[in-house]
Amino acid sequence: MKHYPAFLLALACFSALPARADDANLLPLQPGVYTEKSMPCENPPDRALLIYWGKDAGIDTAFAKCRLKSVSNEDAIYLLREKCTAYALGTTTYPTQRIRILSEKTFETDGKYYRFCTTHLPR
Q: In this structure, which topology does domain 6-118 adopt according to CATH?
């Protein structure tokens, strides 16, 4: 049986927002949980996780929930401006993140490569 960190279960609750049928993903990525390429999909360390739920969701981490404020791109390079709220402290930051999308299920950011692992979290 797979075990996921408690933050992932909390993340699933925060991410369950209704979407209109005509909404489209702002990034050409498969929504779901991603891990650093060198890490296992089962029980990866929190620092190795990034999550993208699709639509206007930002790239979440184990420590913060993010929403996209704006997205621009040139070919496969995307510049994300986000509003992120830390889970533990509730503080808000407005980071800018550059990601290079390699495929629908892989991307690179900050010199690290991430791969798709799963579309859902256990209940």
A: Lipocalin (2.40.128)
The domains of the chain are located at 6-118
Alpha-carbon Rg for the chain, nearest whole angstrom, is 14
For residue range 37-62, list pLDDT tens digits in order. 999 998 888 899 999 988 888 899 88
CA 30 to CA 62: how far, in whole Å?
19
Q: Please give the Cα distance from 117 to 114 (Å, whole number).
A: 9
Tokens of residue 23, six digits: 């909404």
Report the alpha-carbon angle 6-25-95, nearest 5.
65
109 CB neighbour count, 10 Å cutoff:
16
User: What pTM, to 2 d.p., does this model score?
Assistant: 0.76
Helix (H) / strand (E) element for 36: namely strand 32-36
